[in-house]
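To fix ideas, we quote verbatim a fold written out as tokens:
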Amino acid sequence: MFAVGQPGVVAGLVPYLITGGWEGNGASVALQVSGAVLLAAGLAVLAQTVIRFAVEGLGTPFPAAPTENLVIGGPYRYVRNPMYLGVIATILGQAAILASPALLVYAAIVWVTVASFVRFYEEPTLSSQYGEPYDAYRRAVRAWWPRATPWRDEHVSTRSEASATAGAPR
């Protein structure tokens, strides 16, 4: 419920209330199309991250019911915070579709809020919980700007290679 509820409130209900029921200001067709693409991309990323938390992490994005495993696959191989970026993209898409300066301001407020949460709570908690694997991931994958190529966990591949060659004749 949290995985749908929290982003739904932040990226759906609050923008709805801010815009008085998604009332627009006459955006151009080009801006509306751009906004629709951004909105769809944000929703797609949100869906992927929620599924990844359940399947790979065996948990939820809710801090009171965290994952059992560190989630570093899928979109997390490109950027550490794709769920938050999906929420912000969704808000920015609505801002473009509706030509709403108020939603642009709201998107900035959401970003500052989540960036602060990530920096002061989430990163220290994940570092404490997962140790060196998270620290290596954090060094390799930026928080807010996606990598051009997916990150590959060298620790996993090194362990796999070591296991495969341990019994091989030299």
